[in-house]
Amino acid sequence: MSLRPILIHPDPRLKKKAEPVTAFTPQLRALADDMLETMYDAPGIGLAAPQVGVLKRIFVMDCSKTDEEEPQPMILVNPEITWSSEKVSTYEEGCLSIPDSYADVSRPSEVKMRWQDLDGGAQETHFTDLWATCAQHELDHLDGKLFIDYLGAVKRAMITQKMKKLKKARA
Q1: Among 153, 137, 128, which Cα is nearest to 76's?
Q2: What is the pLDDT of residues 128-142, one digit of tens each?
Q3: DSSP 3-state of 109
Q4: Cis bond leading into 73, ω under 30°?
Q5: Residue 123 and residue 166: Cα distance in Å, rounded?
Q6: Hey, which residues are catalytic here?
Q7: How many helices (H) and strands (E) in the chain?
């Protein structure tokens, strides 16, 4: 396992739609392991493959929040939402590709998601609360969408300018 660099917005790769995973190989497993290690190190609760420069439909997440809670890492390949609630929840979202910027985003409070595991087997889970928000946030990454795309133009532009300055400072 190794840490992978996380792309920072604006990066054109973050706005591209990821390709479906068709080969369930040891390389896919290594990518998933690297993504989990990178997510935990960041630290974050979710990370999509496009954020590490891989345009494939896979993301990892773990919304267990306390030190007392056992980690609950999940790896979702080719995920899709099969149902979402009419009830909406609002969470202050952040993103590892948009460091130190947060905004309230409203999304369905519950979703059912179908995906494949690392062996290609079919899986389905009903996510609620923070898990539902995180799953939707990461799925958005696979479609080239960022949480700031839910914000007004002025706020989005301010955050984008802040990220450009951050990238320049890091260069």
Answers
A1: 137
A2: 999 999 999 999 999
A3: coil
A4: no
A5: 39
A6: 138
A7: 3, 7
Domains parsed from the chain with CATH numbers: 12-170 (3.90.45.10)
Q: For residue 66, what pLDDT band results from cuts at 50, 70 and 90?
A: low
Helix (H, G, I), strand (E, B) or coil at 4: coil
* Count of positions (residues) in the chain: 171
Q: Name the H helices within 3-114.
A: 26-41
The whole-angstrom separation of Cα 32 and Cα 139 is: 15
Q: Give per-residue pLDDT as tens, 85-113.
A: 999 999 999 999 999 999 999 999 999 99
Mean pLDDT for 40-62 is 97
Contacts of 61 (CB under 8 A, 6+ apart): 39, 45, 46, 47, 73, 74, 76, 131, 134, 135, 138
The rounded distance, in Å, linking the Cα atoms of 166 and 171 is 9
Residue type, 26: P
